[in-house]
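Researcher: Please predict.
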Amino acid sequence: MPVSPLHSQELFTEQYQRECKRSERSGRPFLLMLIDLSRLAAVDVNRYLDAITKHLHDTTRGSDCKGWYRNRRVIGVIFTELQQISAASFRLRLLEGFRDSPGHDPAGLIALSSYLITGTVKKAVSTAIGQQVNGTVGEPELVRRPSVRKRSIDIIGALFGIVFFSPAFIIIAILLKTTSRGPVVFRQERVGRAGKPFRMFKFRSMYVDNDDSIHREFVSKLIKGEIDGATENRNEKLYKIDNDPRVTAIGRFLRKTSLDELPQFFNVLKGEMSLVGPRPAIPYEVAQYDLWHRRRVSAKPGITGLWQVEGRSSTTFDGMVRLDIRYIKRCSLLFDLLIILKTPFSLFSVKGAF
């Protein structure tokens, strides 16, 4: 009986993303196994490939997806409908028989690793053959990497923004230093693309030495849907705390107009942020995310974004996440330009800005 060929990288990636979304909804994990052939010469890959494919065919189910995770370099296998880790371990033990198969690797150049994945959360299970594979091999790519053109526009736009708003930088710095004690620029840890932390810059809008427990509690209730966000003057959903006692008088103005975010142009220059992208999340916020919420941190955060121009503080937390995910799916230079052009109108209307 002929052995089915491996799926192409495009088909395997589609199946992998589909399994991630299914896992997000059901909460049931699946196992991703990677066979790294990158240390083999091209001639050796061809020599071992038929034997590896046959062994995978003999030791996996027909429903398990087998294809190129990275073309001609890394083979991927998706084991679906795993009910518990012991099931994943059972599959891994089957594949350890690779050592005794006709395609065995006496030189130890082939590395085999496995990851238990729930939604977009990846947990290493073990390495069966060879040394631990490089982290770049084990990181599933759920979205496209930022393009060179997008990065070029980010740099040009950030430089233009710094020069254009330089008078505002000076005036705001003077106001902050003369009205309250503390630094002009506030640095806070945020979560960047793929969960990588970075220090985000903002003009300080709060008094120094304040307690963040009030915001932690607020964010927790907001994510859980326990806050309806109604105010005295309007029936709107709020993302930020109304009448926050930690915010200075100048800080309230800066927040309403989003001028407190001007220093983020320097984060863009450093490559930590983009001009357009999802709102940069706080670590204690991400820690409370549902699985599907985590898809919003798969892209580089932005100074402005779809949420800022369409929802801002007048939407629910889930609504904000859906807008960020919609942007990630539709991301293009034209879409970025449209959002940038809409941003000034959103700032001038100050709708939902608290």
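Model: The chain has two domains: 9-138, 148-349.
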